[in-house]
Amino acid sequence: MRAVGIDIGGSHAVCAVVEDQRILAAESLPVGGTSCLAGLLPALAANAARLLELCGLTAGGCDGVAVSFPGIVDPFAGRILSTPEGKYDDAGLLDLGRWSRECFGLPLRIENDVRMALLGERYCGAVQGCDDAVMVTLGTGVGGAVLAGGRLFRGKHLQAGFGGHLPVLFHGRACICGSRGCVEAEASTWALPEICRAWPDQVLPFLEQYIHVHAWTPWGKVRVLPAAMGPDAGLLGAVPLLAEPC
Ligand SMILES: [Zn+2]
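Above: the input record for the complex with zinc ion. Below: its predicted structure, written as tokens.
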């Protein structure tokens, strides 16, 4: 299966042509000054068209467009429900499926960025072959996603598994979401990913040991693994997302 993958972030977006477990071509473009998603779409379309040409392909040679987005997403309706504060405020008004059909003649699927990364890690990364997995991403924010019984756990309001806004300190710091003491408000910092990269051998075994001691898992031991696909994971989620029944 072949896909146009688009990974939209807060500071940049990446377009790619993905074929099964390989990224054939990819290009990043900065979105720093762009506050509306509609303004970014022409550049994304041009970028994707250029990459397809580079690969000697046309949009007709792809099965669909898969978009990874950092917000609350309804993957069944193909809509963005809520966005990070001050970023892409117009996203909920956009019909991205229509945009994809008009630009590429292809169907579009969209999913939250952390869930896309988990799909990618399961498809060809650290949890390949696992039907039950939890992913935690550490960056500007703290993200979480859950795979249960081989399916993404989304929940009624499509927020299941989001770890960043779980309160961990009752009288903690005010959070951007309106709550207090959220994981993001207490632990999210530009330094945290750097610390984890610098100390992977210390951090992960500590976490694993802590879970082994404190979690009630009579069936065995939970494994804690570093993600294997890095920033490519969200793009490599494109094929399994398109293959997932609507
Ligand atoms: Zn919060």
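Notes for the reader.
The pocket of zinc ion is lined by residues 165, 175, 177, 179, 182, 184-185 (CB under 6 Å).
Residues 17 and 232 are 12 Å apart (CA to CA).
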